[in-house]
Every structure is written in C-alpha cells, then in structure tokens.
Amino acid sequence: MMEKCNNNKSFIMFSLLFCFLLFPHLLLSLENDYVRAPVRQLVTTQNQRSDSDPQQVHISLVGKDKIRVSWITEDKHTQSLVEYGTNSGKYSSKATGTHTSYQYFLYTSGRIHNTVIGPLEPSTTYFYRCGGSGPEFSFKTPPSKFPIEFAIVGDLGQTEWTQSTLKHVDSTNYDVFLLPGDLSYADSQQPLWDSFGRLVEPYASKKPWMVTQGNHEIETFPIIYPHGFKAYNNRWLMPFEESGSTSNLYYSFEVVGSHIIMLGSYTDFDDKSEQYKWLQSDLDSVDRSRTPWVIALLHAPWYNTNEAHQGEGESMRQAMEKLLYDANVDLVFAGHVHAYERFTRIYDNEANSCGPLYVTIGDGGNREGLALNFKNPPSPLSLYREPSFGHGRLQILNETHAHWSWYRNNDTNSFVADGVWIQSLFSSKACTQNPEKQTSHEEL
Ligand SMILES: *[C@@H]1O[C@H](CO)[C@@H](O)[C@H](O)[C@H]1NC(C)=O
Ligand SMILES: *[C@@H]1O[C@H](CO)[C@@H](O)[C@H](O)[C@H]1NC(C)=O
Ligand SMILES: [Fe+2]
C-alpha cells in the first residue's frame, strides 16, 4: 500500500493527501503499531458438476425433527427428490419437495429445489443425495438435550478471509450455524449468489445454516423490483411459515432448550407492522420450561460504538427493544458493522442486569474490509471491541449457563480473543418475577 504514496517527489504532499483521502485506513495504521488485516481478494467458485447434479446445497432446521435441503440445478427438469438414510450409499427414505426459479433482469436462476426430510433422530449422521444423481452429502442432526453449540458470524461475503473464517468455524464441532445478515455481497450481480452458494456448500450442506437478511440482500430496483429480496427469498428459504410468520424476512425456531428469533432490519418493524405483531405473539408463545434460553438475531445493531453505521438500528431499537426486554430475551446478536463488539446487559441505553446482552459480530470477512474506528472515549456499556475478522461460538451448557467466545482470525489459525460466561435470565427470579416487567401484552 505504501508504495502508492511515494512515487512522485514533486507531488509528495498532494499525493499523500490524495492517498489518505482514498485509503483513510492508512492514517490509522500509522497511528497504531498493530496493522489490521487488510481486505483480501474476492473468491469466485465455478460449477464443476454436470447440469443435473446438485450445486449450492445447504440445509436448515424445520420444526422439531425435520431438515430442509435446498439446492440448485442448471437442468430445468431435475426432480426435487432427496434420498437419505443413516448408511452411506444406502438410502432407506426419500422425500420430494418443490422447485422454483426467478428472474432478475437478464439473469434466470437455475432450478431451486427445497425438500423437507424427516422425522430424523437427534445426534445422528444422515447421508443424502439430491435429485437422484451427483455426490453424496452428509449432516449431523442437533442433539435432543444440552449442551448445544452455535457458531455465529455475520457479513460473510466471499473473499479469502471468508474462506479462512469458514475453515476456522469448521475446525471444531458445533451444531447449528447462525448468520445475522449479509451473505453473498452479490449486490444485484446474480451469478455471485451462485458463486457464494458453491463456496459455502461444504459447510452449509453438513450443518444447518439459519440466516436472516442484511442490507446486501435487499437488491431493489425502482419500479421493476420495488420489494427486493428476490434472490435471498428464493435461495435461502427459512422456516417462516412453520413459525407463524408471513414473511421469510423474520421467523423463529427452537432447538435444544433455545428459542431463536430471526428479525428483519430491512422490513417494517413499527408497532403497526406485521413483524411487530408476529414478534409479540412469538414471544408470548415461548415456554421457558421448554426453551429457557431466548436469543434474537438482526442485522443493524441497536447498540454500536463503532463509527460505522451509527444510528442505523436506532428506529428498530425504539420500536422493539421493550418487547425483547419484557420477554427476558437473553442475547441479541447483530452484524452490519465489520468488527467485533461485546456489550454488557442493556435496556434503553443503560446497563440493566435483566436486559439482553448485545454482541456485534459482522466480522466474517467480506470484501468491504474492517470497520476500524471505534468512538472515543469508550462507552462503559461496551466491554470488548476489536476490528478484526473472526467468528463467535455460543455453547449452551444447561438451562442456566452458557459460554460465549470470540475467535480472531490469525491467518491460517484462529484463537480465542474474548470470552464470557452468561447466566440465563430465566434462572434469575429478580428478572422473571419483576413486576416492572410485563410478562403479557394484555393491555394492547
Ligand atoms: C450448568 O453448567 C454450569 C457450568 O458448567 C455448572 O456450574 C452448573 O452447575 C450447571 N447447572 C446445572 C443445573 O447442571
Ligand atoms: C498467529 O499466527 C502467527 C503466524 O502464523 C503465529 O506465529 C502465532 O503463534 C499465531 N498466534 C496464535 C495465538 O495462535
Ligand atoms: Fe450490512
């Protein structure tokens, strides 16, 4: 980078100024001894299989004991058939789902297949094949009892950093992958969605990937595509109908003592909106004796001390924070800001031992690079902040204790840079029996 700045002595002042205007992060790397990870190259993956073979295979949880297998074929006649079983090469069961495709300007997608399989046994490895041909895939179902482990990372993209993050995520065991928005960074270039699907297939075909949308999924175009999310909704179908939602942009699901709520930062959220009403009834339906942990994910953070994206989650916070607080939601994960930040438990901008703990984890490795500047002086609500690529792990050990850790990418390896024990709010009488907190919404 520095060579770009000292190639012409007579214009050194001008070029320095110009350089810093173009590459403001250089100023920062001069300020700090520690040089932050630079942006890495885009990785595009080609289809190596035949047209009728599955590509971009990924799985997601549906209901108590089912899994949705999603994949794409170039061939428009392939059936949405999934054959599966617990022995490799011997498929004792099969299911047929549905298929669709979409158009975006001159681009026409391949045939997008969605097939729900099950009921499946917990903690069991299943082998499966899609569309009657092509490679065999396998996945392991989540357990039926604690402990359970979630890998969490947002703003993934498809760069060499994305690859290293995914390798680190994969290097130790976990049960379910959670992604708080910004997947492919296709930004309307539809073939990049296909490329992303192929990049993540080795991971997303063997563990359930539960995702919610980010701003890079919007892809609206005036008059022609006013509602947006065309590629996202077609390619990343989540169990919204199964959770009483009318939109793929927000839904919930349950797995081993955890009720996980995926919210939509880029659809209506005010108190008259469908999403708000759905969230209210979803929270009312939570049975804490079945799911002592309640966790929410969304894209634009409600709490953020980075200079990037300041205030972008604020109107959603004002609309929905009280619902989450009243319902004793334990944790809220966000993405959007390309850095890691962990807060204390908060309600309405103040530390509150009965509020959710907030984490921003938008550091998956996308092509836009890191959000380097945190505001100073640091807020007492923010307990750890660092602009590095990495991923997080939430291990829920039992109904009262969980451990959160953040792994910083260190080139070919990664290591734990932050960690904290978390106690469920369900286990705190001070929070669950607090008359100040409404446990129902009868007055509305
Ligand atoms: C839950 O796990 C924590 C941490 O391992 C342990 O200290 C605690 O005793 C466990 N509680 C129960 C009820 O098993
Ligand atoms: C980070 O990577 C460097 C270079 O590969 C290595 O020397 C160092 O030990 C690593 N640090 C940790 C904590 O793994
Ligand atoms: Fe974003």
Tally of strands: 24
**What proportion strand?**
25-35%
Cα-to-Cα separation, first versus last residue: 58 Å
Largest sheet: 8 strands, mixed
Question: From the alpha-carbon coordinates, what is the Rg to the nearest angstrom?
Answer: 22 Å
Count of separate structural domains:
2
Secondary structural class: alpha+beta
Q: Which percent range fits the helix content?
A: 10-25%
Note poorly predicted spans.
1-34, 440-444
**What would you give as the CATH superfamily of the largest domain?**
Metallo-dependent phosphatases
Enzyme class: hydrolase
Signal peptide: 1-29
GO molecular function, one term: metal ion binding
Family: Belongs to the metallophosphoesterase superfamily. Purple acid phosphatase family.
Descriptive overview:
- This protein has 444 residues and is α+β, with helices and mostly antiparallel strands.
- It has 2 domains: 55-140, Sandwich (Immunoglobulin-like), CATH 2.60.40; 148-432, 4-Layer Sandwich (Purple Acid Phosphatase, chain A, domain 2).
- It has helices at 12-22, 25-31, 160-171, 191-204, 230-235, 274-284, 314-326, 429-432, and strands at 55-62, 66-73, 81-85, 93-96, 98-100, 103-104, 107-108, 111-117, 125-130, 137-140, 148-152, 176-179, 209-211, 251-255, 258-262, 293-297, 331-334, 340-347, 350-351, 357-361, 382-386, 390-396, 401-410, 413-423.
- The strands form 5 sheets. Strands 14, 15, 16, 17, 18, 19, 20 and 21 form an 8-stranded mixed β-sheet that branches. Strands 13-12-11-22-23-24 form a 6-stranded mixed β-sheet. Strands 1-2-8-5 form a 4-stranded antiparallel β-sheet.
- A hairpin with a 2-residue loop joins strand 23 and strand 24 (413-423).
- The longest helix is centred in the middle third of the chain and has 14 residues, at 191-204.
- The relative contact order is 0.12.
- It binds 2-acetamido-2-deoxy-beta-D-glucopyranose (NAG) (2 copies) and fe (ii) ion.
- The site of one 2-acetamido-2-deoxy-beta-D-glucopyranose has 4 residues, from strand 24.
- Residues 410-411, 413, 415 line the site of one 2-acetamido-2-deoxy-beta-D-glucopyranose (NAG).
- It catalyses: a phosphate monoester + H2O = an alcohol + phosphate.
- InterPro entries: Calcineurin-like_PHP, Metallo-depent_PP-like, MPP_PAP, PAPs-like, PAPs_C, PAPs_N, Purple_acid_Pase-like_N.
